[in-house]
Design brief:
By secondary structure, the protein is mostly helical. The chain contains 15 helices and no strands.
Length: 422
């Protein structure tokens, strides 16, 4: 007899698909309504702000999943954690303001500079709120806060401007910044209320001062933050390398290819929304056998679902790119093929990133991700200058495969965890 799928899981699946679809649609709209170089500028700003926001989260999103998946009242600890995010966001916003002023040569007005900088706390706070909401069983709201709301609202605003005949790079960046602020405005209050309801009736913890929180958590939080930061930087390193050479059209080609290839990671992205709290519960309860069965079955399911789409994209990469983005951007087909291979390898490896962070391997995760950055520092500019988006996509594929294998070995040897299909 086939068990019925719980409605909560179905709702999470729909929300995750909608969120990833919104990110993809934003890429399509940006590539269609802006010139290739202008789209490249937007993607550089989008990626840069997201990197700084990842720093500003300071690992609190992962900490929230760990705390709220356990027992006890963690209200006092989470209050200190929110303060850490606010302080780190303030630092990040100042960094972005300086970067925008320098890169624009002072050509952007103060309203624009402040608006872009405000996107940092908006993104950081909404992602942390999403983690809290997911861990307190408000899965749909959590997924939308983390992934879906910002690209969806940005797409709507940019499309409306295009229909009104006023689409521009500046307006696209402004739409992104405004959407980030709105995401935090609704998700943070909801997350705070949800965590209070979740903690009610549980054994109360001793009051946690901000100083005590930092003493007890600054090292693991730093490791989690740096690991998450390096994962994102490694994935989008081609954007930074290509933009440093002024190859903005190549930035657009790589971003298009990456967004299409990311559809292959849709299934594991959906899975992690509900698997992360279960992984944490099984690990801290010592149920490694249950964790292994859950991780392997989810990896097998994901590979089975992406195998056919991956094969179709490999064969028909150029027609797909032409259909979605137009003939002018057909050059994205070559990097797309490389990134598809890397995406399949990542899916087959399972939830290695999340497992290392949840299973107290933050330091090891940081070392592995830092190692991935080394080839970009050593050869990234040389590869990008000679082979453009295709060359950087090929290097990205090789590093993704190497990281997936290394992370799988670390989890198996240090924690007895088998995350992938093998």
């Amino acid at each position: 007899m086939v068990r019925a799928v719980p409605p909560r899981t179905v709702h999470a699946l729909i929300a995750r698909i909608a969120s990833i679809g919104a990110s993809f649609l934003l890429t399509v709209v940006v590539a269609r309504v802006l010139p290739p170089a202008g789209a490249g500028v937007f993607f550089v700003v989008f990626t840069s702000v997201t990197v700084v926001a990842t720093f500003a989260r300071f690992g609190v999103d992962t900490l929230a999943v760990k705390l709220l998946s356990g027992s006890g009242d963690h209200h006092s600890t989470m209050r200190a954690a929110w303060l850490v995010v606010l302080l780190a966001s303030a630092v990040g916003a100042v960094v972005v303001m300086g970067g925008v002023i320098v890169s624009s040569g002072g050509g952007m007005g103060w309203i624009g500079v402040v608006g872009v900088a405000a996107a940092v706390p908006g993104l950081a706070l909404s992602v942390v709120a999403g983690a809290v909401l997911r861990s307190t069983h408000r899965m749909v709201a959590g997924i939308l806060a983390e992934l879906g709301f910002v690209p969806a609202m940005s797409t709507i605003l940019l499309a409306a401007a295009w229909l009104a005949g006023s689409a521009s790079v500046e307006l696209a960046i402004g739409a992104f910044a405004l959407s980030s602020i709105f995401a935090a405005a609704w998700s943070v209050p909801l997350a705070v209320r949800s965590s209070r309801v979740h903690d009610s009736g549980r054994p109360r913890e001793d009051p946690v001062t901000f100083g005590r929180f930092l003493r007890e958590n600054v090292r693991p939080l730093s490791a989690m933050m740096l690991s998450a930061l390096l994962v994102y930087v490694a994935a989008w390193a081609p954007v930074f390398v290509l933009s440093s050479l002024g190859l903005l059209q190549q930035v657009t080609l790589f971003t298009i290819a990456a967004r299409v290839a990311n559809f292959l990671t849709l299934v594991p992205s959906v899975q992690v929304s509900y698997l992360a709290p279960r992984f944490a519960r099984d690990f801290f309860a010592g149920r490694i056998g249950d964790l292994n069965r859950l991780a392997r079955s989810s990896a097998l399911q994901a590979v089975g679902l992406v195998a056919i789409p991956a094969a179709v994209l490999l064969i028909a990469a150029e027609p797909v790119v032409r259909l979605l983005f137009g003939a002018d951007l057909a050059g994205a087909a070559v990097p797309l093929r490389f990134l598809i291979v890397g995406a399949v390898a990542s899916v087959a490896a399972g939830q290695v990133n999340q497992l290392m962070l949840l299973c107290e391997l933050e330091g090891t995760s940081f070392i592995l991700n830092a190692t991935v950055i080394v080839p970009w520092l050593a050869a990234g500019v040389w590869i990008a200058s000679g082979w453009g988006a295709a060359g950087t996509a090929a290097l990205s594929m090789l590093l993704t495969v190497a990281y997936s294998v290394a992370a799988s070995v670390v989890l198996r040897r240090s924690r007895g965890i088998r995350a992938g299909v093998v």
